[in-house]
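pipeline stage [seq->struct] | target=EGF-like domain-containing protein | organism=Polysphondylium violaceum | residues=1324
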Amino acid sequence: MKINCIILLLFAFIIEVLVLDNGYPFKVNETGCIYTIQLKITNEAGIIEIVSPSIHNSLTASNATQFIYQVDFYVDYGQTLSPILTVFTGDQVYMNVSVPTTQLCTALSSFIIQTPPNNKALPVEYGYYQDTFRFFIEITNLPVNNINTEFPIKKSAPSPWSYSTAKRLYKNIFYFDVGLSGGSGTNIAGLSINPPQILTANKNYEFDPVKSLDFGSQASLTKVGAYPENRIIDMPIHNFQIYFNGTSTTPREKCVLYNQEYTKVLPVLGNPLNYTMVTLFTNTSSLLSNPVNLNFLGITNSILGTGLSFTFESPTNYPYSFNIQSLSNIDRSFITISCSFVLNPFHSYFLNSKLIQYPYGYHSGDKSNLEFKTIVPVSQWLGNFSFTADFRQQQLYNVPLTLVSGFVDSVPPKLESLQLLQYPFNRVMIKATISDDLSGFKKLSFGQAFELTAKDLVSGNLLNGVYQSIVDYNIGASPYPIYLYDNANTSIVFSDEKSIYNIDTLSRIPTVPYSRKVLAKDFTRFEFKSSLVNLSSGKQSNVLYFNMTNADSNSLVKFTPIYSFNAKEIIYPWLNNTFTGGWNTTAKLYQVEIEIPARLFNGRIGYTLQFEGATISNNEIEFYHQTATLTVETDFADIMPPLVTKILATSSNFSIGFLITISDPINGFKKGSVHLVANLDPQEYIIDLTEKDRISGDIFSGTYNISVPFDSQFCRSQSYTIRKIILMDQQNVISSNFGFKNLFDPLSSVHGGLPNYLSCATRVTDTTPPTVSSFLITFNSPGGGLDVGTIQGRTIKFSLTLEDLESGVSRDHIPKIYAVSQEDRVSVDFEITAYSEHKVDYQAVMILPYGFAFPNPIYFSVYGIVDLNFNIGSHGLDNSLLYEIKTTLNSAKEPWIETSLPITSKGGDLVVYGRNFGDSVNNVSRVFIDYQDGYGYLDVPDFIIVNQLHMVFKGIRQQYQPYKVKVLVDSLESNEYLVLPVYEYFEPIPLLCPGQPECSGNGRCINGECICTLPNAGLDCSSTIIIIPPPKVNTTSPETIPVINTEIDGKNVSLSGLISVVSIRELTNQGTIVQEYPFSQWLLLDRNHTNENTFLFSTRFDQSKTNINVTVSYFSQATNVTFANQLLHMSPGSIKYQIEISKYQFSSQLNYLQLIMSAKIQTEQQDSSCTYRSFNNETSQYTLVQIDKIVLQGRFIKRAIVDRVIKDIVNVPLDEAMSSGSNGENSKISQSFIGINIPFYRNNVSLDPDFSVLIDQTSASDKYDSKCSTSSLSKSKLTNGQLAGIIVGGVVFLFILSAIIIYFISKKGSSKRAIKLRKLFGRN
């Protein structure tokens, strides 16, 4: 916390000391601690030098009047230091200045390494091998706010194990990993942590030993296979797959096998007694020796002990050459790069680390002699530029260029101010003022975490502007260092949050905020419905339950399982399958429904939990909660994907293709895709494989037909080859032959895709591509450039006409239009609008991303122009045909919705982020929503403009289907934004009901609530309902006065009650009363003539601005009613208060209203009596007031209808605040006050409490904390122990009695107090 200290001297010096950072004790000796503190000292005289303390102090930054010092202070153990500085201010003036902070040096013995009860390391990887373990430690009594990530924790581990650097998880919680770095993996028992001096104890951790795989003693090797064998590899990536089949008489639960490159051997099929394992040896060297020899560690079996050997053919050499054309930057902001080469279909091509895919860059020639050409936009302010070209062959080109520029900008931009604000779901709002002398601001990058760019300009210009954006914070990446760039790529760097960014004010980079950090130790409950799941018969469903203190019911939870082997070599889509859950309002906990695929190997399942801005691994959660372990078992596991066992080339008069036989004997084949390439045709053909393509067999072994149609009149002779194949089984396990490290090559056993030759008639000689006879770009640009901040400005239309009078234009090859900027490129396909034998017309529409290329120009070019002889052409790359358009940014301030926070199908508040939302003072804004129900767009009357980037749409209804929203600001309309609500389904959790047995055997238990069989009543159905006559209703206020006359234990009992609506008040979120409005004047508006027992009252408050209507109804028979989608059972003789409150002018949107109701029961009988009252928190909330055995019970459900949306609310007891002396409770009167808390709303609120009268089996005198008359107490013969037992057992009884009293008062009372009491105890 920053603290100021100001000293005023007679010399008129004003010195202010501001503590910027409190350090931690980085040095400790035998007597005390040394703390490092960073101070900011302000002196208008402009001279400051620290004289004392002199241990170490250094000036880190200063301007004319401000100085930042780093100072060391010494403090003895067990002592507290209040530092004093001695400073020199010039002119021989020395003075002492207090530093506004205190430092405590804690004795050595108080620092302790602490671990949770489960003091055991957890494996990071799962399954049959475990070779990486994670350790968590917690260090108590450290100044946790000052611990940095380099806090010294020493570690040691026996060879061949190695450990990682300790990392801080949060505050004083650290973790580090220990892994097997090679060798046979001998058993080890634990790890010792050697702490620094300030820590007094070492900790030894235990974990299960890792066993090497001994084929000689534990298994018999039945098969060894290696692929590819003598296969031509056209990529410098050599993958050799090796399979092991074996049996074992001893089940092996954990084992690991390493080859000479320390590649893991993984089980993929079977069980510990009968298994198949696979490994992959990968070598990327272009000088790989031939043959390849592999040796394995920890293998004693003679077959593998001598190693394996593979031979292969050398890859084909595809020649190429570069040609770079550098143009003057004075007129053009680009360079042209061209390259000629023979296209290799098995290579990947990259330019400046971006993948090049057909047709981008295909300029001219054909596939046997292709000229690649593209424009690379560069800044006109640059003097130097370099690019890289990676063709995945023998050489990586890195080409530096010197550009001719008419401008020089060598001065970096200046950060004038910077503000970072935390937003939900790991978002940060950045607001910065940035200036530059010449080229203008380009971007402000925070490491790899997030960035601010020129498109975020909200006012000013690029030379002096204000920028604002809400960005996603990649919390897995460091936000440092921070780079500030201008358009000449001149930059300034800030290393961390302590860096000074403005020397004029000595302002420092603010701390990067993040959303609430949740730790595994914060969970109060964490468990799965089934902790052990059997997957032998198929996939299984499961449920995760967890809870925590101060839970936010609006938070969503994302659960991502990790494949049990955690191996990057195995491609498994389940890795990316995230299950979303949320708050279960019935169970009062978080719940996520998950699905686990079939036949995984025995072992624990890893997972991550994304919750409230934190990503928490199962390792951390299991460290604190042993119930967080999820384990699976399978009789016979299968993570072996589908493989191709046979390929046969086929052809007909109209198509060419292959018959492919696919085998997956256990899980079965599901779907796939095959990529075909030809030696002349530049286009790749992707053919999907599904069950409809199977011509014989079944999903376990079937033959599938893939084919490419052709027209014999126009075709050209060429060969087709399978370039890439991807297959997926029924459990989504994938095999693929494309990539640099895929464990399963579906073509491994058939040695690749054999070519299929297509023979066609000789065609006309044609060596030139089609010509462009017409090309037109149309866009809306009043200023002459593209306004990339508006929808119209970013919408561009293109028309294209191609002609080829020789072979003709190929209609199978669709051209693309590309828009290229300095940072990115986007493209769209053309569509054919008309064609003839030698001519084709096309059209295309492109919508550019917001702010695309700004402030630099965009270059447009056309690729993919191909004729029937496969000659390739392009358009827009020559100087005479260059399409360059300048950009501007949203001068009209058109609104734009970019994204939204997740919203569930329950509806509620929709939070949207975007641009130019305006404000409620200077702009006229409207919000619209289209629920896709046929009614079109409707007004959203309630919304909040937080700032011009952030809006909240209130009162979104319950909706399961997608819907659209848009914003109108000062007649400027935004884009339509599609909202996809998150569907929440929660598997019902059986809830127990009160009573022994449940509901005392007098009712049914439904969702944790007893539905009593008449005449039984009460929370546990142990009480008896009293059917009182219709209560007397006060005609001047909604008060009911129940009159109770009944016989109990052979004695006549007479009581009266009062249910009333007392007042309403506005409170702050801290509970402070802002306004309170007592109710005094009511108007009886109507008495329902069809029901003589229904009355409607109304009054106003808040200077007659707000109406409150109260409908009082008496039920003579048992009735079911519904409120807020909840079914309520009304007993005979019960009274309901239906309360409606109109719009209220809140002082703040953070405030809430509290409606106060009262329930009272009293007796005038002179006999001795006892009273009791209580408040219970169940599915509904109940208040009870009781005299002897008579109970007036009020039921308040935890729901209200707020602005037409059902919301959870809270009801709170107010007896201590509202009751005093005899007015609250004595032996003759029992009274209770309830506050119904109403959240901020816009238009209206509906509430629904009810009341009933019961006879409790337990008298008030037998309940703890009851009030009894003196005569009643003198009759008691019970001991203190007996009284204690009665007290404990009487809580339920008091509850029931209070409910009965409330019921009678509500029914008969007509006074204002009676009405208030009914409201107080009604449902929400």
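stage status: PASS
auto-comment: The mean pLDDT is 76. The chain has nine helices and 112 strands.
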